[in-house]
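Weekly modeling sync, notes
Attendees: S.R. (lead), two postdocs, one rotation student

Agenda item 3: backlog of single-chain predictions. S.R. asked that every request posted to the team notebook include the full sequence so nobody has to chase files. The rotation student volunteered to paste the first one in as an example of the format we agreed on. Action items at the bottom.

Example entry:
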Amino acid sequence: MTDAFKRAGKLCIITNRYPANPEDTASPFVRDFQSGLEDMGIETVVFTPAYHSEYLQLPENVHRFTWAGGDKTVGEINLKSPSGLYRLYSFLREGKEQLFDLIERERPTHCLALWALPSGWFAYQVKKEYGIPYSVWCLGSDIYVWAKKLFFKQLTRTVLEGADYLFADGWDLADRTFEFSRKSCFFLPSQRKLPQAGYGHNPVNYRFKNFLFVGRWEKSKGVFDLVTAFKSVLNENRNVRLHLIGWGSEEKSLAEMIKWQKLEEFVKLVGKVDRITLSSYLKNCNWVVIPSKGDSIPLVFSEALQFRRPVIVTEVGDLGRLTTEYNLGKVVSPGRPDKLARAMLDVTRERKNYTRRMGHVLNFLSVERAVARFTEIAGHRLAIHAPAEFPWSKDPVYEA
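Predicted structure, as returned to the notebook:
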């Protein structure tokens, strides 16, 4: 397992995003995954695009490449504008050149691309130029969104077909990746570990029943459905409050909706928070709501379980399956504020214990399991089933 990787040499992680500091919300699980690999004695080097951040606190082996993106991330590029297309061209050109320089300096023997595009495209170029094998870790948007777009569909397929190993951070996503590429795809969970909140700091009022949303303020994340549903909940129960942690392009629209609905007293737009503050909200709220319209297993799901908070989720990706199978909370149809409101009202009235199997779910979603899973498979030239004692030994292995 790990010994095979030690013999293989160094792993180059190519990722669309890497948190600029420990409090950065840009794909924070990547830092934990890299740290887990190094704890197992696997030498790593990271290649990732630069973006604006209040401050940098990075390991020495993390290399941020410069490009004409200004303060934007690659996911924020507007591909419908000439300036956006120029930024994309700069991203691919500058990224490729600087990655090749890094490859020649560091001499890795395997690359792991987080997301099929654009990181997978970079890994594909490295393999063409240097013959270095690569893996792709699909993380949702690359398959659920970009693989459906005309130009990016073929590019995604080329990247996946050229990969030596494929991973996905959800079983449904693994299914779809296999169907799209006709190549073996293995479940590899993504998770961020949060610090346990200290006693004494409580950002919510215990006199009320508190619902918490954590995520991007975008229509695809269902946050507008949640506010609509919460308005209906208030019509029957005034003893509730909603806290919205996050950020996004719809911040102004969301604030206007809350004001128009006269919900300022009941809905708090918290914004971005540090890890301790997030932990405090998770520890002290009553329920975590994940109303997404399209996700695999979002980070907030396992974060809620870390603090033993029951969840209300939509039937997307693996959220419904996990929540139902392990009795972690309520499941509703996506895009149905009426159903969401009914579930929220139900949990304020019932006295069910949804925590009994949370530890088991956290175990097979853990960073440690992800690291062991990756090294067990990608540490060999051919995909190998994990040992029987690991819970993923029962996961389907998709082979054409």
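Discussion: group reviewed the output briefly. The chain has two domains: 2-191+366-394, 209-355.
Action items: rotation student to repeat for the remaining queue; S.R. to check formatting next week.
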